[in-house]
Amino acid sequence: MSGKIGIKDVAAAAGVSITTVSHALNGKGRLPAETRHRVREVADQLGYRPNVNARNLAGGRTGLIALAVSQEPELAFQLGDFDYFASLIRYATMAALDRGYALAALPPVADNEETFRRIPVDGAIVVDPVHGDPSLAYLRGQGTPILTTGRAVDGPEGAADDYWIDNEHLEGIRAVLDHLAEAGARRIAMMLPQYPASYVVDMHRGYSKWCAEQGAEERIVMAGDLSEAAGFEAAAVLLDGPNPPDAIYASLDRLAIGVLMAAETRGITVPQRLRIACCTDSYAARHASTPLTSLALNPERIGEEAANMLIDMVEGIEPRPRHRFIPTNLVVRESTLGGATIDAPT
Questions:
Q1: Using CA atoms, how far apart are residues 55 and 22, in angstroms rounded to an integer?
Q2: C-alpha–C-alpha distance, residues 190 and 171, integer Å
Q3: CA atoms of 304 and 175, how far apart (whole Å)
Q4: Which of 96, 198, 263, 272 could form a disulfide with 151 if both were Cys (CB 3.0 to 4.6 A apart)?
Q5: At a CB cut-off of 8 Å and minimum separation 6, what does 330 contact?
Q6: Least confident window among 25-34, 112-121, 192-201
Q7: pLDDT digits over 94-104, tens only?
Q8: pTM of this prediction?
């Protein structure tokens, strides 16, 4: 087929009416999900590109969706500090553009309510919503379509009605802890941030369950914030205390870098005397002085699926299922390889 592809060409190739094509691509009408999907596939195969501006105007939409990373006022951080956020935003942006939408990444502040008041958006992605997030409450009050990556922690009754994408953190932490135990670790400590997000809740729960099953002592230390310095200080509490751990699993890559620095300043060799693993893979984890074993969360898939799922909601297509899990995978590196079981000091 040569020349400019039009809506009639898509209708003919899909074996449906022009009206069905219009409804399928614009999120209108009462069409089976299979029909919408097939029409979109045919349109993509033919290279059909609808007039996005006309479509949005006809549908009363702006063509703009927002992405905001939830924050606590006391634990402010920049999105550029973490590879995870950069990857998630990049792939969400590309997926949105493929669907004819622009994605605006809002500034990392504790409350974006005023921004949402000034900039009309068709929907919003809220990343790792903390308890009582005012932006989330505002969007809900306005009836704006919302998708969260990570579950809202305002209560189980609210979470059941939300739309979200999350990792299987309980399975992921089990994979890490099993790996550390198989590598010879017997006193595994967990480092968590004081951050009220669902992944922290899940990691704590998963660690406690694993320890109970193994008959192991829980050794949890809380980091003051999400920085290397906080990881260093929290690690010092463990390493300088009685019966220090022989492995530490940090919930963030930057915290794990702090653990590694604390070990190095004390002459504690990694992994011979201390094994270190972290959640979230990153450039920093891969290129640390001792490359860090990491639980990869696959933010690329999260960002892409989040954008597509939200846009379906904006266009009146009910996402099925409304709760989705993205698998994790363990990337084993030098920080946990080798070493030996070390008896507790007497």
A1: 9
A2: 16
A3: 25
A4: 198
A5: 172, 175, 176, 179, 293, 294, 295, 296
A6: 25-34
A7: 999 988 899 99
A8: 0.80
Per residue in 3-34, pLDDT tens?
Answer: 578 888 889 999 998 888 877 877 666 778 78
Which residues, 6+ apart, have CB-to-CB distance to 336 below 8 Å?
Answer: 179, 180, 183, 247, 271, 275, 276, 277, 293
* Residue 53, token pair as written in the block: 């501006």
Cα diameter, the chain: 81
Contact 67/104 with Cβ under 8 angstroms? yes
Omega cis (within 30) before 345: no
pLDDT value at 78 more than 90: no
Looking from the CA of 57 toward its CB, the CA atoms found within 13 Å total 5
User: Which phi-psi region, left, alpha or beta, contains residue 338 (left: φ > 0; alpha: ψ -120 to 50)?
Assistant: left
Residue 142's SS3 state is helix
Spatial separation of the C-alpha atoms in residues 140 and 144, rounded to whole Å: 6
pLDDT at residue number 38 = 87
Three-state secondary-structure class, residue 217: coil
Helix (H, G, I), strand (E, B) or coil at 72: coil
Share of the chain above pLDDT 70, in %: 86
- Token pair, residue 259, equals 């653990």
